[in-house]
Structure formats: structure tokens, C-alpha cells
Design brief:
This protein has 7 helices and 11 strands. The chain is an alpha+beta fold and 239 residues long. The strands form 2 sheets. Strands 2, 3, 4, 5, 6 and 9 form a 6-stranded antiparallel β-sheet that branches. The longest helix is centred in the N-terminal third of the chain and has 22 residues, at 69-90.
Length: 239
């Protein structure tokens, strides 16, 4: 396994509210752990939310006595949600903050994924497929047939998310399980990347470079060249 992680403030924002974590080594009972979070909130609240969420999740994973990867991720994300929610309630400057999260771990020939919000995980081999489902207003509109995917990219409310960490005392988490094979590349990213680069362009970049650090840096460059309207955070995992 080869991995690479990076965040970038982008071309417009003054503060970076994206936070990523990438560890190929065992943490608690998980063989590895990869996390991407995209914070939201007022001055400094968004970056606090994403870091608090990731740190809380890691801390719970380190001490969990549960056995299955899904149970460990669920326990950790609920703990992270409670930590962000409590901090928001106790500090007026942090009120209303929240964050997306997508977390993944590889065990044997399987990857286990947990997701809240509109940060994404893609599986890339001979094609590119989005594994996670966005918890966003435009995704709901697509499911209901109100707009198509092309219209969604330009929709004025495409940044409105319908589920996030820290907004209420409990959070609904989506879980996914996918098989992994040698040669697979997994991309976890915030919407600062997926809103700036089409999926087909991401696929072309992945196929153009052998090393994951080159892939990651080129994706950052392209997102910024296309406007860089938001912070960009990504983790790449090459099996």
C-alpha cells in the first residue's frame, strides 16, 4: 500500500478548514485509518470542527474494544459528533459549526467506509466510481428527478449539505464496503476538489502518473487552475 495526503487553502478562501489524516499503520484494532473532513462555520469555527472531529475519532479508535471495523468507525464517529456538538453548545464563538467526514480502513481484501456529508470516496481502476453518496440538497434533487447531474454542478445551492457532524446530538452515518485488488486507487476528497474537477478529469490524472504524490499534487494544481473556490483536501490510497 502507498498513500499520500494533502490540503490546500485554494485560491479564494483565507483560512483552511479542511483536515485530513492518513496512517498506513495499525491504530487500535484497525489495520490502518484514513480520514477527510471539511469544516464549516464562522471565524475559526470550521477549522476547529474538522480537527476536533478527526482527533476525537482517532482517540476513540485507539481505545475501542469493539471487533468489527464498521462498529469501531460508528463508535468513533458518534463520539466525534458528540465532541463537536458539545464544543458548539459551550462556546458562543463556535455555535453552529459542523463538518463532513469520510473515513476508511482496509482489512484484507475489503475496504470499510463511513460517510457523513458531501466529502467523497472514489474507487479508480479501469474506470472511476463514486462509492459514497453525497448528503446534499442537490443530490436529493437529483434522486427526485428535479435536476440532472450536469445542472447540479452549476446549481446555486450545491454547497448546501443535509447531514453533518456536530449539528445535533446524534448523527446518521452511511457505511459502504468495497473489495480491493492490486492496482486499485482510492481517492478521498472534499468538495473543494470534486466541485472544481470533473470525475473524468480525475480519472485521466490518476492514469497519467504512477506515483500517488504526483497524482495528488496535480489534482491540487488543476483544482486551483479551475478557480480554487474552496479549500481542497485529499487522501490517496494505492493498493
Amino acid at each position: 500500500m502507498k498513500t499520500f495526503s494533502i490540503t490546500d487553502v485554494g485560491m479564494v478562501r483565507k483560512m483552511n478548514q479542511d483536515y485530513v489524516f492518513c496512517c498506513e499503520n495499525p491504530i487500535g484494532r484497525l489495520s490502518n485509518l484514513f480520514i477527510v473532513a471539511d469544516g464549516m462555520g464562522g471565524h475559526r469555527a470550521g477549522d476547529f470542527a474538522s480537527k476536533c472531529c478527526v482527533d476525537s475519532l482517532i482517540s476513540m479508535v485507539e481505545t475501542s474494544n469493539l471487533q468489527s471495523p464498521v462498529s469501531i468507525l460508528e463508535q468513533g464517529i458518534q463520539k466525534a459528533n458528540a465532541s463537536v456538538y458539545q464544543a458548539s453548545a459551550e462556546n458562543e464563538a463556535l455555535q453552529g459549526m459542523g463538518t463532513t467526514i469520510v473515513a476508511a480502513t482496509v482489512l484484507g481484501n475489503e475496504m470499510y467506509i463511513a460517510n457523513v456529508g458531501d466529502s467523497r470516496l472514489y474507487k479508480i481502476n479501469n474506470s472511476i466510481s463514486q462509492i459514497t453518496e453525497d448528503h446534499s440538497l442537490v443530490e436529493e434533487m437529483i434522486r427526485h428527478g428535479d435536476i440532472d447531474r450536469k445542472e447540479a454542478r452549476l446549481h446555486p445551492n450545491k454547497n448546501v449539505i443535509t447531514r453533518a457532524i456536530g449539528i445535533s446530538s446524534m448523527v446518521q452515518i452511511d457505511f459502504f464496503e468495497v473489495s480491493v485488488e492490486a492496482g486499485d486507487i482510492f481517492l478521498m476528497c472534499t468538495d473543494g476538489l470534486s466541485n472544481m474537477i470533473e470525475d473524468e478529469e480525475i480519472f485521466e490524472v490518476v492514469k497519467s502518473y504512477e506515483k500517488v504524490d504526483r497524482i495528488g499534487k496535480e489534482l491540487i494544481r488543476m483544482a486551483n487552475a479551475n478557480g480554487g473556490k474552496d479549500n481542497i483536501g485529499l487522501v490517496l490510497i494505492q493498493i
